[in-house]
Design goal:
Order of helices and strands: HHHEEHE
Structural class: mainly alpha
CATH architecture: Orthogonal Bundle
Distance between the termini: 49 Å
CATH superfamily: Stage III sporulation protein AH-like
Oligomer: single chain
Strand content: 5-15%
Number of helices: 4
Number of domains: 1
Helix content: 55-70%
């Protein structure tokens, strides 16, 4: 009975998290905050001229109403897909933790994976918030196999903004610039 209650609690909390995330994504910030381009110092970090930026649009031109609707749907679906994938992985690790026949090593591995996934989720969320504050309506950050994919909602993406996003990603995700891809969707 306790395991069933814990499972229900976990599913309820994950559902609440998904609903609140979707709500925030749909509503978004009212006014983007302005930020300055951050140049990195001599401590081994990045400067604007050290990054090769290839800017790619993920969409063809469309009408304004269609554009807003499709862009919102696009970002909401990416967030939902990421959250669903994470929830499935977390569920798998929680089942290992709740299994009384699991070995000590399996328990430690599952616990480490859960902590790693929670840390990754917090880093992605913090990076998305910072990018939104820099003037983008919406953004999705997905890290897979030590590669970070960032897609921002914008009609275009100037090189300076792309470098700024890469710099933010380096700080939050602790990966090199060569492991970061930035794209935009209008």
């Amino acid at each position: 009975m306790t395991m069933n209650r814990q499972t229900m609690w976990l599913v309820t909390m994950l559902t609440v998290m998904v609903v609140l995330s979707a709500y925030y994504i749909v509503t978004g910030p009212d006014q983007p905050a302005g930020t300055a381009i951050q140049n990195i110092d001599e401590m081994g970090n990045l400067k604007n001229d050290q990054v090769q930026v290839d800017i790619k649009s993920l969409e063809k031109p469309a009408t304004v109403k269609q554009e807003i609707s499709e862009a919102s749907d696009y970002f909401v679906s990416y967030h939902m897909q990421r959250n669903t994938t994470r929830e499935k992985e977390l569920e798998k690790h929680y089942q290992v933790l709740m299994n009384p026949t699991s070995s000590k090593q399996e328990l430690e591995t599952a616990n480490a994976k859960i902590e790693e996934m929670n840390k990754l989720d917090k880093a992605e969320t913090a990076l998305e918030e910072q990018i939104r504050e820099s003037g983008f309506r919406d953004v999705v950050v997905i890290q897979e196999n030590n590669h970070v994919n960032i897609i921002v909602q914008s009609k275009d993406l100037p090189r300076k903004k792309a470098v700024e996003i890469i710099t933010m990603a380096q700080k939050h995700m602790q990966v090199s610039a060569s492991q970061i891809s930035v794209a935009y969707k209008a």
